[in-house]
Design a protein that fits this description.
- With 526 residues, this protein is α/β, with parallel strands linked by helices.
- Strands 15-16-17-14-13-19-20 form a 7-stranded mixed β-sheet, with helices on both faces. The protein has a 5-stranded parallel β-sheet with strand order 10-9-8-11-12, with helices on both faces. Strands 1-5-4 form a 3-stranded mixed β-sheet, with helices on one face.
- The radius of gyration is 23 Å and the shape is globular.
């Protein structure tokens, strides 16, 4: 009898490049994705694909500007209003659908995403420049988000719970969570499927309907997500897609009274402006995730090879274009020089190039604005401190047609320098020498953001001090797979404190779906 061995789950922390079957499947998916390049995609409103009110726009690949990913509908405020109207019309029937039936559709969508994993991952890699393993991990994460959020809804019996009474058997009371109505989901380029699929699915299974506006840099993955839901049998109007500029589509989603709640992932400036301006007549739920400036602290007791590996993986995975990227390091004086030596050695061994090739660790960053931001930071580091490795734009072997830069490590900067404070979203991490763990924690906490943080050290008392006093929502200790990155649904809830998030309830965790509902108390007397 032949025993079938299931393929290991592809996650950010367990990715391996030596799985030949995996790479063969990916190559087949890549051929399919390449054959679809240059296609035209409309807005998806009320179950129909429609042209945009302002024509169309092209998306080009950061791998090579000559590659046209696809043409997308350029949505207008009127298109957004049509999508909101479709969502509002569909919402009462969707909310009245028994929650187990809603969950069945969401789970079917998850299975479809898994079935299309290779094609979706290859398309994402071309669209935003992710390596094949990063892209495969994100598609799998998206499917797992749908499954995990469904399981939390199921474990809470649809969030319908009996309450106590005051001794009168004729009185029956319950706490019931009800949907708000229509949610807008505004998703970023860096996780174009997971950060669209996670919030959209949570809103849907709670009984809301959704209007999704993806980043104009990365709408292809959103198209694939919406198609998966449609093929899973989601009723028309429950999930609508409008692609186009934030100034028209995004602004309409913010201002329109037909939107009952919003989820936004992006920069602190845009997210906090949305948070302050979204509620007008009365408070409306505004779930915003606004980035990070994530520290790793290295004690003199640390395994330095482990620390250097985890820092480099987290600083330079997907070009530092993760809100969880490890962009600053605080290391005790006794081990500073050796840690830096190991970091530089490991960074210089990273393969930078075409992310569609299996050996590549770091592909391009997303666009020319990001390159300019990288070059400005490097210039400051050279002026105010020292560039320890990296710092150049890469142009050989056809990389001049894309946006490729070297992974950079900088040091010898004042502890209050802006490179320790500002989120850059590029492959650059800054190292700061400290004299104690207390100083490292103080400097780590003296920041607008509070998303992720990592610690390396072997002293249990220091580990406890870090866990008890660091101001961040996602903490990792002695993690070689990534100092500050690599959260997974049902494993590491992912949410920020302070300027990194608005609700204190994390994505990928058990409390996320409940944010898309409001509580209602039912008291019935026989």
């Amino acid at each position: 009898m032949t025993v079938s061995i299931p393929r290991p789950k592809i996650t950010y922390a367990t990715l391996r490049a030596d799985n030949e079957e995996l790479h063969a499947l990916y190559e087949a998916g890549l051929a399919t994705a390449r054959a679809a390049l240059g296609a035209q995609h409309g807005n998806f409103i009320g179950g129909d694909w429609r042209e945009g009110g302002a024509g169309a726009f092209l998306v080009r690949s950061p791998i090579d500007r000559e590659i046209v990913v696809a043409s997308f509908a350029r949505g207008t405020a009127e298109d957004a209003r049509a999508a909101i109207a479709a969502a509002r019309a569909a919402q009462p029937a969707w909310a009245a659908t028994p929650w187990p039936d809603r969950l069945a559709i969401v789970r079917r969508a998850a299975d479809i995403i898994s079935e299309r994993q290779m094609e979706c991952a290859a398309g994402m890699a071309i669209e935003v420049g992710k390596t094949r393993l990063e892209a495969l991990g994100e598609v799998e994460e998206t499917a797992d988000l749908l499954r995990y959020y469904a399981s939390t809804m199921e474990r809470n019996d649809g969030y319908d719970h009996p309450m106590d009474n005051l001794g009168d058997a004729s009185v029956h009371t319950r706490s019931v969570l009800r949907p708000y109505g229509v949610f807008a989901v505004i998703s970023p380029f860096n996780f174009p499927m997971a950060l669209a699929g996670g919030p959209a699915s949570a809103a849907l299974m709670a009984g809301n309907t959704v209007v999704l506006k993806p980043s104009s840099t990365a709408p292809l993955s959103a198209v694939a997500l919406v198609q998966a839901f449609a093929d899973a049998g989601l009723p028309p109007g429950c999930l609508n897609l409008v692609t186009g500029p934030g100034a028209s589509v995004g602004q309409e989603l913010q201002d329109n009274p037909g939107i009952d709640g919003v989820v936004f992932t992006g920069s602190h400036k845009v997210g906090f402006d949305l948070f302050r301006e979204f509620s007008t007549r009365y408070p409306r739920p505004c779930i915003v995730e606004m980035g990070g400036k994530n520290p790793a602290i290295v004690s003199h007791t640390a395994d330095l090879d482990e620390a250097a590996e985890g820092i480099v993986r987290s600083a330079f995975g997907f070009g530092g274009q993760k809100c969880s990227a490890n962009s600053r390091v605080y290391v005790e004086r006794q081990v500073h020089d050796e840690l830096v030596r190991l970091m530089v050695e490991k960074a210089r061994r990273l393969v930078v190039g075409d992310p569609l090739r299996r050996e590549t660790f770091l592909g391009p960053i997303i666009d020319e604005r990001s390159v300019a931001r990288y070059e400005a930071a490097i210039a400051e580091a050279r002026h105010d401190g020292r560039v320890l490795t990296g710092g150049s734009r890469l142009t050989e072997h056809g990389m001049d047609r894309g946006s490729y830069v070297e992974p950079a490590i900088v040091g010898n900067l004042p502890a209050d320098h802006r490179l320790f404070a500002d989120e850059l979203f590029v492959p650059l991490t800054a190292v700061c020498l400290v004299d104690s763990l207390e100083e490292a924690i103080r400097l780590s906490n003296d920041n607008l953001y509070g998303l992720t943080a990592g610690f390396y050290g072997e002293d249990p008392a220091e580990v406890r001090q870090f866990l008890d006093t660091i101001e961040a929502g996602v903490l990792y200790v002695n993690r070689r797979a990534g100092a500050t990155t690599g959260a997974w649904p049902a494993v590491q809830p992912f949410g920020g404190w302070k300027g990194s998030g608005s609700t204190g309830k994390a994505g990928l965790g058990m409390y996320y779906v409940a944010q898309f509902m409001r509580e209602q108390s039912h008291t019935i007397v026989d």
